[in-house]
Amino acid sequence: MKRTLVICSGGLDSVTLAHRIAAGDGGIAGLLTFDYGQRHRKEIDFARACAMRLDVPHEVVDMSDVGARLKSSALTGNKEVPEGHYAAETMQVTVVPNRNAIMLTIAFAIAAANGIERVAAAMHGGDHFIYPDCRPAFTQAFQDMQDRALEDVARVELHVPFIDWSKTDIAAEAGRLGVPVAETWSCYKGEARHCGRCGTCVERLEALHEAALPDPTEYEDTTYWRQAVSDR
């Protein structure tokens, strides 16, 4: 059994991944969350709650100074978060350049320094066409790079079990594992409640519906997602 450092944002995907590993896919060494100045940084509280629920250590890495220099994204700058179904032409504005590359590099360094054999991340198939650092080619290249960066120092494996899964697959896995869906945060707007209209909210609502998983999450708008899906 490999000890695993799980990168957990507090979203449905990464929280489900943490529950999956805790349920038997290996031992969790801890959850690692990044504060990169994202407008939806309240997700960090949901990652913290996940760590408490699973009774594992939780560490938050402050990358806000780096994030402040990445203003091209709606997540770290002043651009509006797009509404509607996930689409390349609208969601492109949510790309934070090199976000996963930076986070994974830090996670691998922490794992190597602490004798942890595996780093887990929740990239999935639904993100491939928007986010280049969520694609299989990236994860394989990153592993190759780390094998050389840590040669004769440590061997750390990148664990991405959802890399070819759909969001609906992850929602179904959340149901199987008994993940408390309402205790995860997806909305990119980061307001008091999920907006129900941004790309991540629409994707979340659609996936939970398709997986027939009850969703007690509070949304500002609970019907818009159906229109967004039908209009795509």
From TrEMBL:
Alphabetical list of Gene3D superfamilies matching this protein = HUPs
Q: Briefly state the protein's biological role.
A: Catalyzes the ATP-dependent conversion of 7-carboxy-7-deazaguanine (CDG) to 7-cyano-7-deazaguanine (preQ(0)).
Per the record, the domain of life is: Bacteria
Q: Which gene encodes it?
A: queC
What organism is listed for this UniProt entry? Ferruginivarius sediminum
**Residue runs in coiled coils:** none
Q: What are its E.C. numbers?
A: 6.3.4.20
Name the residues that bind ATP: C8, S9, G10, G11, L12, D13, S14, V15, T16, L17, A18
- Per its UniProt record, what Pfam families does this chain match? QueC (PF06508)
Q: What is the free-text note on the cofactor?
A: Binds 1 zinc ion per subunit.
Tell me what this protein is called: 7-cyano-7-deazaguanine synthase
- Gene Ontology terms describing biological process: tRNA queuosine(34) biosynthetic process
Pathway(s) per entry? Purine metabolism; 7-cyano-7-deazaguanine biosynthesis
Under InterPro entries, the record lists:
QueC, Rossmann-like_a/b/a_fold
> Which GO terms fall under molecular function for this chain's record?
ATP binding; ligase activity, forming carbon-nitrogen bonds; zinc ion binding
Binding-site positions, Zn(2+): C187, C195, C198, C201
Q: Which UniProt keywords apply?
A: ATP-binding, Ligase, Metal-binding, Nucleotide-binding, Queuosine biosynthesis, Zinc
Q: Which reaction does it catalyse?
A: 7-carboxy-7-carbaguanine + NH4(+) + 2 ATP = 7-cyano-7-carbaguanine + 2 AMP + 2 diphosphate + 2 H(+)
SUPFAM superfamilies, alphabetically? Adenine nucleotide alpha hydrolases-like
Keyword Electron transport included in the entry's annotation: no
